[in-house]
Amino acid sequence: MFRALSSTTVRWRPLEGEGLEHLTLRPLNASFGAAIRAESVLIGERGAAAYGLHYRIDCDAWRVTSFTIDTTDGRSLHLLSDGNGHWRKADGTPLPLFDGCIDIDLAGTPFTNTLPIRRLNLVRQSGTAKLKMLYVPFDSFEPTVDGQHYTCIDDGKLYHYEAEDRSFAADLPVDEDGLVVDYPTLFQRLSPETI
């Protein structure tokens, strides 16, 4: 349904406030599976607080195996996963609170919507996938568990996202890589000519 991943770079801007994300997604050489790395530089604001950060997400077959967030004000978060929903800190300390969370959601980027969309390969006949996400807000950077639902509306082209508590929903058009093209009320993808 989606094309095989090659190195690609995209940018998004928030629809409210100032900000910009510059993301590079590329395959990694690996002895097994389809390993990818997403690296991004992101500036933005949450409420009245501005932030700047770099994140890196490593995946195997679109299952997150590690992610790191480093902020310009010196905060850092680095977590590891076995790809099956078992998380630990970089020092090996288990994090059972996040058991069952295969995907992550980083608050200030539309990229993390790609992770469950690509991993699950949802089609219209799949119904709704109800997921537990390891969610990282960009104000506190304290991870929590967040329930999210994904439903395919048009195979490989359009997906419905809904928060489990029904506080937010959006239809997300994606490109041939599964990357969000438009995120109503939150983000807009910039055209390649502007990159």
Q: What would you note in describing this structure?
A:
InterPro entries: Glycolipid-bd_prot_put (IPR009467). This is Glycolipid-binding domain-containing protein. The protein is mainly β and 195 residues long. It has one helix at residues 114-120, and strands at residues 8-14, 20-27, 35-46, 49-60, 63-71, 76-81, 87-89, 103-106, 128-136, 144-154, 158-163, 169-173, 182-183, 187-189. The protein has one domain. It is built from one helix and 14 strands. The strands form two sheets. Strands 7-6-5-4-3-2-1-14-13 form a nine-stranded antiparallel β-sheet. It is globular. The relative contact order is 0.17.
Which keywords apply here?
mainly beta, Glycolipid-binding domain-containing protein, Glycolipid-bd_prot_put, 9-stranded antiparallel sheet, 195 residues, 14 strands, globular, 5-stranded mixed sheet
